[in-house]
Amino acid sequence: MRPVYSPAWEKRALGAIKPGDVQSWVTSLNSTHGLAASTSRTVFNTVNAVFRAAVRDRMIPHNPCAEAKLPSVPRKNIVPLAVEQVRTLSEEIPTRYKGLVLLGAATGLRPGELFGLQLRHVDLLYATVSVEQQIQQTAKHGVYVGPPKTARSHRTVPLPRMAVDAMKAHLRDFPADGPESWIFTAPQGGPVVYTHFMDGSWRPACAKAGIPKGTGPHALRHHYASLLIKHGESVKTVSERLGHTNAAMTLNIYTHLWPDSEERTRAAVDKAYADRSADAQPQVDEAA
Question: How much of the chain, in percent, has pLDDT values that exceed 70?
């Protein structure tokens, strides 16, 4: 089978590639090469970026990828961790990361945001945590401190009592020397590295806690969102706490977790029409 990343139009000029050619290629990613919808989209995005650059540099007048129809990605409903699962996980993970698990479950911070916390970001007096940076890890750049994922990811999140208590216990056992000190550190010192954390601590703890294989630390974020939704927080509030780009993104991920309102919908319409019927009855009687 020919690799999907080999040139599809290697003997043709950029300007000779038409929208129909791109659409046929996109379709072949699944039908011929057997790629999943999400992978097909990733491959397409790379090609689309090339054509966008060509338009920007005025090598071609139009982007043939502009109106391509991409395969839809099936939505997977998130099943958040239960409170008892989080508690068990916090007991099974190495002590130096117990506070990280509880803080993640209580704030919804992304894993990189948790790893990037320094003492200056946590205010236990006013019970808040500020997200200003994250620890990132890439094959090209290695481990480094970077900005939050998006502009909306810069945020201040309130700390519930259980998180304040967890942070006090953590800082008592693993003191931070100054404002620039990392809250959570690797065993050998320095910030937590995602791959090392997963292999050495997270996955073994999940196995002991009976948490399904493949569950990552992002599950703590979903757990937090589910608690807010269960207790009646609005989409806007959940979106702000999670640092999502907009509320639509929050709904797209968590819409199935909001309480079903079918009965309330029926009751609202029935009540309106019942009231209308009662109002109209005297007029009917008078006309008769």
Answer: 92
